[in-house]
Write a structure and sequence with these properties.
By secondary structure, the chain is α/β, with parallel strands linked by helices. The chain has a single domain, classed as CBS-domain (Roll), CATH 3.10.580.10. The chain is built from five helices and seven strands, in the order βαββααββαββα.
């Protein structure tokens, strides 16, 4: 399995010139905690609900602020064919939990998160437990 198979391919995005009000409405409407900021189909930033909340302290009219002033620039990306453990390594190295997935051309192809990694590990552990139980009839957890 590759990183590109872990998370959703349909990524919720916004543009750098969207207002923070528009972006937070998208966060709410799509029920997500982050938006990938794209330009020409390439990820150039990330805007999280936390970024939006913290922006309140910096501006009088925060809703009209452009996303590009609030977003985290140059997000850490992963290649679609990376091993899923790349997520764990990237989390440790960069202290973030969401990663835009890019194709060979650098264009957005999906998103993978810490939650995706944990869910996948949980599913794999269930498979291992089923195998142990099938092969060891006297085993009872």
């Amino acid at each position: 399995m590759s990183v590109g198979k872990l998370g959703p391919e349909n990524v919720v995005t916004t543009s750098p010139d969207s207002t923070l009000e528009e972006a937070t409405q998208t966060l709410d409407d799509e029920n997500v905690g982050a938006l990938v900021v794209t330009e020409d189909d390439e990820p150039i930033g990330m805007l999280t609900d936390r970024d939006a909340a913290l922006a309140i302290h910096d501006r009088d009219d925060v809703g009209s602020a452009p996303v590009e002033e609030i977003m985290t620039e140059d997000p850490v990306t992963l290649e679609a064919d990376d091993d899923p453990l790349a997520i764990s390594e990237a989390i440790e190295e960069h202290n973030v939990r969401r990663f835009p997935i890019v194709d060979d051309d650098g264009e957005l192809a999906g998103i993978a998160t810490l939650d995706d990694l944990i869910a996948t590990i949980g599913e794999e552990l269930d498979n291992v437990a089923d195998t142990i139980e099938a092969q060891s009839p006297d085993y009872s957890p």
